[in-house]
Write a structure and sequence with these properties.
The chain is α/β, with parallel strands linked by helices. It has two domains: about 1-20 and about 325-415 and about 440-510, no CATH class; about 55-320, Alpha-Beta Complex (Spore Coat Polysaccharide Biosynthesis Protein SpsA, Chain A). Helices cover about 60% and strands about 10% of the residues. It has 18 helices and seven strands. The chain has helices at about 5-55, 75-85, 105-120, 135-145, 165-175, 195-215, 235-240, 250-260, 280-305, 310-320, 325-345, 345-350, 355-380, 385-390, 395-400, 405-415, 445-465, 475-515; strands at about 65-70, 95-100, 125-130, 150-155, 180-190, 230, 265-275. The protein has a seven-stranded mixed sheet with strand order 3-2-1-4-6-5-7, sandwiched between helices. β1 (about 65-70), α2 and β2 form a beta-alpha-beta unit. α1 packs across α6. The longest helix is centred in the first third of the chain and has 53 residues, at about 5-55. It starts with a helix and ends with a helix. InterPro entries: Nucleotide-diphossugar_trans (IPR029044).
């Protein structure tokens, strides 16, 4: 193998390894900020809410518009509408906008349900677009133009807000005119449905319990998570409004609003349960969108952040936050470079034991950092049974590695400026509920590449074991398990989806035949 190619591969390997170490150690800083501020901030928030309701009555509450962006969500849209209409808030001050861009039967389901709820006295309106310009951002922008409320609550179709959501969030916006957003914490409707949903729930808890808390309480830039939050309309306009040039319009607007001087607040104790995707291909599509959108936002926003007058640590936090999905190309590159470097690159093959030991110490501390963060998140989440849930942490680790191929493609697509559409994440509307509609999946071509990379990592692992380099072995083993598991599961869920769609079509044809007879 060419010496130049090997040296280039070694440079890439080192850069990727350093990247993983940096992102890993940033987890410890998030844990520090969370533990430092948790008790004080949560107590302060509770006191603030109690003080507000001692001094104000329900009649003093401001006008709120709840926006519900929907696209082909026939399985869960009715559940969403019922939950939002059940929110405890003065009816005359709560407008509900259903922003339905659906292109399938979901529109008729939504139209019928909206008419039913309007007849029951709710101020609910259906806004239907047929062009889907700017996707979700465009729908929210169009709805905001005619919204009555000075505050805008937003929920995706797979969320089920508690009755007291607005009562627990709106006061923060009233009490502090500089707060532009109040973000709630995501909960889980189907955490225990499968190993996949259990692993996802741990990952999401890590993000909200520790990372979002740390950013908000540590006075770093944080982001709106696209749902389960309440915006001040002026903060949206102040940040330049909704824009559809990235796939994470929520993160984009959050940064622009904060650069304009608005504050973001995360409320730890306001939990909004949501349905987790129980299909690996749906999960990968969701992660692809988040990964590509985050990097698109980084490219768009970071130059403005770096030129701003915010503190240096805030700038570093913003860089790590918006580029976080870069860990996936870093993982993929380390997996691909490890074997040829050992086999053909003499300096690596003859490194002294102490070099491996020191390198392993840094890599090990960085590698376990996410697990430490997840442990802290589960311990402090307030949920019972957290010790049992941590047993599924290896599944989450394998899952995080396994999607590195797909997410790396997303990162490269963002860097190259490749355009793409907003791909929805299919949901069933409840684990025990029969789905109204089954959405056909495309063949998971990326699973073939994941399979190839997984087999490649096995051969790399055997090479390292043969060379008695046992320190690197566990990492290559995790890579192999992750890539192979995600690949196999992708094919299994794809095949299962084919049968579900065929069964749904057959049942539909039977119903139509009976109706004709």
């Amino acid at each position: 193998m060419s010496t130049i190619l090997l040296y280039a591969m070694f440079v890439v390997y080192v850069i990727a390894g350093v990247g993983l170490v940096i992102y890993g150690f940033s987890c410890y800083y998030s844990i520090y900020l969370f533990l430092k501020n948790s008790r004080k901030t949560r107590l302060s928030d509770r006191k603030a809410i109690l003080k507000y309701y001692r001094e104000h009555s329900m009649a003093d509450l401001p006008q709120v518009t709840t926006q519900l962006p929907v696209f082909n969500e026939a399985n869960c849209v009715e559940r969403l509408l019922e939950a939002v209409c059940a929110i405890d808030y003065p009816k005359d001050k709560h407008e509900i906008q259903v922003l339905d861009d659906s292109t399938d039967e979901c529109y008729e389901v939504t139209k019928k349900k909206v008419a039913e709820l309007a007849a029951r006295g709710y101020d609910i309106k259906l806004i239907h677009r047929t062009n889907r310009k700017d996707f979700k951002a465009g729908a929210l922008k169009e709805g905001m133009a005619v919204a009555k409320g000075e505050f805008l609550a937003i929920f995706d179709a797979d969320f089920v807000p508690e009755k007291d959501f607005l009562l627990k969030t709106v006061p923060y916006l009233v009490m502090d005119p500089q707060v532009g957003l109040v973000q709630g914490r995501w909960g889980h409707l189907n955490r225990t449905e499968s190993g996949l949903t259990l692993a996802q729930s741990i990952g999401i808890d890590g993000h909200f319990v520790v990372e979002q808390s740390a950013r908000s309480w540590g006075k770093l830039f944080m982001n709106f998570n696209g749902t389960a939050g309440v915006w001040r309309k002026d903060a949206i306009y102040g940040g330049g409004g909704w824009e559809g040039d990235t796939l994470t319009e929520d993160m984009d607007l959050s940064y622009r609003s904060q650069l304009a001087g608005w504050k973001m607040k995360f409320v730890f104790d306001v939990i909004v349960p949501a349905e987790l995707p129980n299909d690996i291909n749906a999960f990968k599509a969701q992660q692809f969108r988040w990964a590509k959108g985050s990097i698109q936002t980084a490219i768009k926003i970071l130059p403005k952040v770096l030129r701003s007058k915010v503190p240096f640590r805030v700038k570093i936090g913003a860089i790590l936050h918006t580029t976080h999905y870069s860990i996936h190309p870093c993982m993929l590159f380390t997996a691909l470079c490890a074997w040829p470097l050992l086999a053909f690159f003499e300096p690596v093959g003859h490194l002294p034991t102490w070099a491996y030991t020191v390198g392993f110490a840094f890599i090990f501390l960085a590698a376990i950092a996410p697990s430490v963060l997840y442990f802290v998140a589960q311990r402090c989440s307030g949920y019972t049974g957290w010790k049992i849930r941590l047993l599924s942490l290896p599944i989450l680790m394998a899952l995080g590695v396994g999607i590195a191929v797909s997410n790396s493609r997303a990162v490269f697509a963002a860097v190259l400026g490749t355009k793409g559409s907003f791909v929805r994440t299919p949901k069933n509307g409840g684990a025990k509920k029969k789905a109204k509609s089954h959405y056909a999946q495309k063949f998971p071509w990326m699973a073939l590449l994941e399979l190839i990379v997984g087999v490649y990592c096995i051969f790399g692992l055997l090479e390292y074991i043969n060379a008695s380099k046992y320190i690197i072995g566990p990492f290559l083993a995790l890579y192999a398990i992750g890539f192979l598991s995600v690949s196999v599961l992708s094919f299994m869920h794809y095949i299962s989806n084919i049968f579900e769609v065929r069964k749904a079509i057959k049942c539909s044809e039977c119903v139509e035949e009976q109706a004709t007879n």
